[in-house]
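[Discussion] Sanity-checking designs against the backbone

I'm trying to build intuition for which residues belong where. Below is a structure token string of 212 positions. I'd appreciate it if someone posts a full sequence so I can compare it with mine line by line.
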């Protein structure tokens, strides 16, 4: 995607296909506020809250050049696995946050010789006119927590809310999240809920209204 119009068109298409604002945010790697704003600009949604200058402050990360090529995806996941390789001696489970974190987690799990699990976060059910009443869930088609040490994998961190939710969900299942890894961190966090976060790319916004 090369400009804001491309994002607006993509948000419109996803909204017309029935995706929630949370799913659109996930697909476009933007915050939920930005997803709402993009859908509003496309004319397919209700007016969202925006910042004073008429638009949300966000950074779009387009990693489709990696995602559409299995070879690139594998090597990217291997690099993410390398960031985790010395973090924890007894980790035998990798949790991928759906949707985009799951394929990256598959490679991480393979490289680090762990089992694979996936977590569907609450944001997939979120929309402007809905209350978040549906909890996230671990897929029963993959490995379960069962009091195990684990890694957490996602593609991007925007606000840190989804990663924090996943960490809490792992704790509720009796698991121990040892470390998290993402392709790109748009917030510049060192840890979430006391769990260290590693990233291949860290975006730092420089300006009077931005921070790392």
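Best answer:
Here's mine. Compare freely.
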């Amino acid at each position: 995607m090369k400009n804001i119009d491309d994002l607006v068109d993509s948000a419109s298409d996803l909204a017309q296909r029935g995706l929630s604002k949370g799913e659109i945010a996930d697909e476009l790697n933007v915050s939920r506020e930005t997803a709402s704003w993009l859908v509003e600009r496309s004319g397919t949604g209700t007016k969202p809250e925006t910042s004073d200058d008429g638009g949300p402050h966000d950074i779009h990360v387009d990693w489709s050049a990696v995602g559409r090529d299995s070879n690139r995806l594998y090597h990217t996941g291997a690099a993410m696995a390398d960031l985790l390789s010395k973090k924890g001696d007894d980790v035998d489970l990798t949790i991928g946050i759906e949707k985009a974190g799951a394929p990256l987690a598959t490679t991480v799990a393979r490289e680090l010789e762990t089992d694979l699990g996936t977590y569907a976060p609450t944001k997939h059910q979120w929309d402007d006119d809905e209350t978040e009443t549906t909890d996230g869930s671990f897929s029963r088609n993959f490995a379960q927590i069962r009091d195990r040490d684990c890694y957490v994998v996602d593609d991007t961190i925007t606000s840190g809310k989804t990663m924090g939710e996943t960490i809490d969900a792992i704790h509720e299942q009796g698991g121990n999240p040892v470390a998290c890894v993402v392709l790109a961190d748009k917030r510049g966090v060192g840890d979430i809920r006391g769990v260290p976060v590693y990233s291949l790319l860290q975006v730092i916004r420089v300006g009077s209204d931005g921070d790392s």
